[in-house]
């Protein structure tokens, strides 16, 4: 239902050379025929557009080192909800972008990546809302901001199409927490 061309982790509100907001959903007529929503409820949890959440993703999206035989091919991954559409209450779909762990990208984990740091990507998918398994709080930090003592955050972007990590500003110090 969805064909990835390119995209941007924040839904297109900030244009950078790394993340060009050009996407194509195919077949577009089916996607556009679905009713648009701002939120959905799943297993007692309330999820909204622009919120981060944990979804089950297919292992094939990740490096072979993360594949595990006991998960039926699915593992929990963090994503940002970009759009919610539904045919009816039983058929709810979420357009999202994935956040990767630094070790899941081609450059791998660098010395400046913190323990709780993720990398925003333009890797978008449309998934069934039933794949949503929980909430997660994620903070976006500027390069020159020291990470908080607790919590998960992201600073860099990864272009899924070009397989390239954004360049960090040279004026920032390298934090790793």
What report would you give on this structure?
This protein has 177 residues and is mainly beta. It is built from one helix and eleven strands; from the N terminus they run αβββββββββββ. It has one helix at 28-33; strands spanning 35-37, 39-42, 45-48, 52-58, 74-88, 91-100, 117-128, 132-135, 138-140, 152-159, 164-165. A hairpin with a 4-residue loop joins strand 10 and strand 11 (164-165). 28% of the residues are buried. The model is unreliable at 1-8, 10-17 and 171-177 (pLDDT under 50).
Structural class: mainly beta
Secondary-structure element sequence?
A: HEEEEEEEEEEE
Major sheet summary line? 9 strands, mixed
* End-to-end distance: 39 Å
The total strand number stands at 11
How much beta, percentage-wise? 35-45%
Q: Residue share in helices?
A: under 10%
Put simply, the count of helices is 1
Low-confidence stretches: 1-8, 10-17, 171-177
Shape descriptor reads globular
Radius of gyration in whole Å, from Cα?
16 Å
Mean pLDDT score, rounded? 81
Feature tags:
disordered C terminus, 3% helix, 177 residues, 1 helix, single chain, nine-stranded mixed β-sheet, disordered N terminus, globular, mainly beta
Short description:
The chain is mainly β and 177 residues long.
Topology diagram in text:
Blueprint: H1 28-33, E1 35-37, E2 39-42, E3 45-48, E4 52-58, E5 74-88, E6 91-100, E7 117-128, E8 132-135, E9 138-140, E10 152-159, E11 164-165
Parallel strand pairs: 7-10, 9-10
Antiparallel strand pairs: 1-5, 2-3, 4-5, 4-8, 5-6, 6-7, 10-11
